[in-house]
């Protein structure tokens, strides 16, 4: 038994020794392979070098654009690019971070075209320095105004200098600054801009296959060779996908098949961008920045409010407006269609839009833009017209308007009558014969034709004639006063009925959707306005007509007293008078 146990121990020991020797031999064979796998391949070395070159070239291009372009926020933009240039790009994580920051810088530059801002900074012009207030309108225009608001200027990108603005434009800049600071309610901004430029035709036809390829398929050998750059490819894919969805490319003249294919290929998760594809992406970004820096003209199909499409020349004012034939358009991202806004701004704004469309690119012209990138213009469609406002008042509102119409008609009629009566009375005083076409002539004629000689009887004749003529002069004034009194009460009635309708909507549908309550609230407010708008002018007209009637009545009374005194003096002559 002892000998058998020793044999088992010996066998186990030999087996462990052989196993250790075999594992050591296998590891020795794998060490060169692992070293080869960890060593960068020539493919990845070349790929990385080209990406580093493209990164540095893109940073230099952005720095040149900031130095030679519109000088807005120069310190902030230059500092951002300087920090980019100082970033290391040695290994893959550093290169990925550098590309991420470069794409972020491009995104910031692109987003400048969508915003309007104001800030204070020092203006360097003609060797002088002044603290002024700047207004930046996207990438289209940069303006300044002195702190006292008396002087304004615009940056002329073609001349590379500031241009002084006229006093009329200075007033517009003052209002635009208040709108940009949100001190005024949202509205269209009137700004002087340089005329639109026609888009140059693309040098590459849409049917060409671009060479070299922008991406390569994510096959297993490619993935192994480019291992470590997954984060870089992910950043490029995300940026290309956002760029494709964020910008309405048909409005930039860059939406040929070439640009769309580029972004789709770069955003494809099944492919990896080549250096040529990255270079094309940077070229496309520079084209986009150039297009955002000026107003552009291009031909496109525009749908009228009737739904009929026609080919028109469209003027794109950055991200702040689209004009065709002097009318404003809206771009629908869902359908990728240009449509004319059914309800347009005022005629003066449309006339300026028509003038801007025909302006030379080197000349300034005032034009209205939408600082909310189309939202304010879209709200114009939802603003009710005068007829729609009146209809919101309901039956009570229509009753108020009927009474207002009757009162206005009666007021005009009575004013004409009183004016004519006053002229006839003045003509009657100049003549000798009493005419029946005026109150004074009828009253004095009645006094002369009276056969009574009693003093009291003559007094009664005059009082009766005065009362009759005064009643004619005051005709309709009581009705006007009544309408002025009941119009606000009818408005209050409409307010009550409108609130009842609102509470019924809340009881049936709840208060989650304010649109369900808008009908009753509109009726309540519109009837109140109609009642006040009716009562105030009717009160003024009543006061005017009442004063005119009292003045004519006082004239009648004075001449009636004089005529009666003469009649009584003729009957009872005073001793000593001839």
Molecular structure report:
This protein has 578 residues and is an alpha+beta fold. The chain folds into 3 domains: 115-185; 215-382, no CATH class; 392-571, no CATH class. The chain is built from 17 helices and 15 strands. Strand 11 (309-316) and strand 12 (322-324) form a beta hairpin. InterPro entries: ExbB/TolQ_transport, MotA_ExbB_proton_chnl, UCP028069. Belongs to the exbB/tolQ family. It comes from Methylomonas rivi. It is found in: Cell membrane; Membrane.
Quick synopsis:
With 578 residues, this protein is α+β, with helices and mostly antiparallel strands.
Roughly what percent helix? 55-70%
N/C terminus separation: 186 Å
Please indicate the percent range of residues in DSSP E strands (runs of 2 or more): 5-15%
Within the largest sheet, what's the order of strands? 1-2-3-4-5
Rough shape?
elongated
SS element count, helices: 17
Describe the largest sheet: 5 strands, antiparallel
User: How many separate domains make up the residues?
Assistant: 3
| Number of strand elements | 15
- State Rg: 44 Å
Which features does this protein show?
578 residues; alpha+beta; 3 domains; 5-stranded antiparallel sheet; 5-stranded mixed beta barrel; 17 helices; 15% strand; elongated; disordered N terminus
What secondary-structure arrangement, pairings included, does this model have?
Elements: H1 2-38, H2 42-68, H3 74-85, H4 92-111, E1 116-125, E2 128-137, E3 141-146, E4 152-156, E5 161-164, H5 167-180, E6 189-194, E7 197-198, E8 215-217, H6 220-225, H7 230-246, H8 257-266, E9 271-273, H9 275-292, E10 296-303, E11 309-316, E12 322-324, E13 327-332, E14 337-340, H10 347-357, E15 364-369, H11 375-382, H12 386-392, H13 394-430, H14 439-449, H15 455-473, H16 477-509, H17 515-571
Parallel strand pairs: 7-10, 10-14
Antiparallel strand pairs: 1-2, 2-3, 3-4, 4-5, 6-15, 8-9, 10-11, 11-12, 12-13, 13-14
Helix pairs in contact: 2-3, 2-4, 2-9, 4-7, 7-8, 8-9, 13-16, 13-17, 14-15, 14-17, 15-17, 16-17
């Amino acid at each position: 038994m002892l000998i058998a146990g020793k044999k088992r121990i010996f066998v186990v020991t030999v087996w462990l020794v052989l196993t250790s020797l075999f594992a050591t031999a296998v590891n020795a064979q794998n060490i060169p392979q692992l070293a080869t796998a960890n060593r960068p391949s020539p493919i990845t070395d070349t790929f990385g070098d080209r990406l580093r070159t493209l990164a540095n070239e893109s940073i230099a291009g952005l720095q040149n654009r900031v130095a030679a372009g519109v000088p807005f926020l120069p310190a902030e933009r230059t500092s951002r690019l300087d920090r980019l240039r100082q970033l290391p790009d040695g290994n893959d994580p550093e290169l990925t971070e550098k590309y991420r920051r470069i794409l972020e810088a491009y995104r910031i530059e692109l987003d400048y075209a969508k915003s309007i801002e104001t800030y204070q900074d020092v203006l360097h012009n003609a060797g002088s320095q002044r603290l002024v207030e700047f207004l930046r309108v996207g990438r289209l225009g940069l303006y300044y105004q002195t702190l006292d608001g008396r002087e304004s200027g615009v940056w002329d990108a073609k001349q590379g200098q500031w241009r002084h603005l006229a006093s009329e434009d200075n007033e517009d800049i003052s209002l635009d600054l208040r709108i940009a600071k949100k001190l005024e309610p949202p509205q269209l901004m009137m700004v002087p801009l340089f005329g639109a430029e026609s888009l140059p035709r693309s040098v590459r036809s849409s049917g060409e296959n671009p060479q070299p390829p922008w991406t390569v398929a994510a096959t297993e050998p490619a993935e192994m060779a480019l291992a470590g750059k997954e984060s870089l490819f992910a950043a490029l894919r995300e940026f290309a996908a956002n760029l494709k969805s964020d910008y309405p490319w048909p409005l930039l003249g860059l939406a040929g098949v070439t640009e769309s294919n580029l972004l789709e290929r770069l955003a494809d998760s099944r492919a990896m961008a080549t250096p040529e594809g990255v270079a094309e992406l940077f070229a496309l970004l520079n084209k986009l920045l150039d297009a955002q820096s000026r107003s552009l003209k291009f031909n496109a199909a525009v749908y009228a409010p009737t739904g009929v499409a026609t080919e028109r020349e469209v003027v794109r004012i950055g991200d702040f407006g689209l004009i065709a034939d002097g009318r404003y358009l809206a771009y629908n991202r869902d359908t990728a269609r240009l449509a004319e806004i059914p309800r347009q701004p005022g005629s003066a704004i449309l006339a300026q839009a028509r003038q801007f469309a025909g302006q030379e690119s080197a000349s300034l012209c005032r034009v209205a833009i939408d600082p909310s990138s189309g939202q304010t213009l879209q709200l114009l469609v939802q603003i009710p017209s005068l007829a729609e406002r009146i209809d919101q008042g309901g039956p009570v509102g229509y009753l108020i308007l009927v009474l207002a119409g009757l009162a206005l008609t009666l007021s005009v009629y009575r004013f004409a009558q009183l004016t004519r009566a006053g002229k006839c009375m003045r003509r009657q005083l100049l003549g000798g014969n009493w005419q029946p076409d005026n109150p004074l002539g009828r009253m004095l004629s009645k006094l002369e034709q009276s056969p009574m000689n009693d003093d009291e009887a003559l007094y009664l004749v005059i009082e009766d004639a005065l009362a009759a003529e005064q009643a004619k002069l005051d005709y309709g004034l009581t009705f006007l006063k009544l309408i002025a009194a009941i119009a606000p009460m009818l408005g209050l009635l409409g307010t009550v009925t409108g609130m009842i309708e609102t509470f019924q909507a809340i009881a049936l549908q709840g208060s989650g959707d304010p649109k369900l309550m808008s009908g009753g609230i509109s009726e309540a407010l519109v009837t109140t306005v109609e009642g006040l708008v009716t009562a105030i002018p009717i009160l003024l007209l009543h006061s005017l007509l009442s004063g005119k009637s009292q003045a004519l009545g006082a004239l009648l009374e004075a001449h009636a007293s004089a005529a009666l005194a003469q009649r009584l003096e003729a009957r009872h002559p005073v001793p000593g008078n001839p």
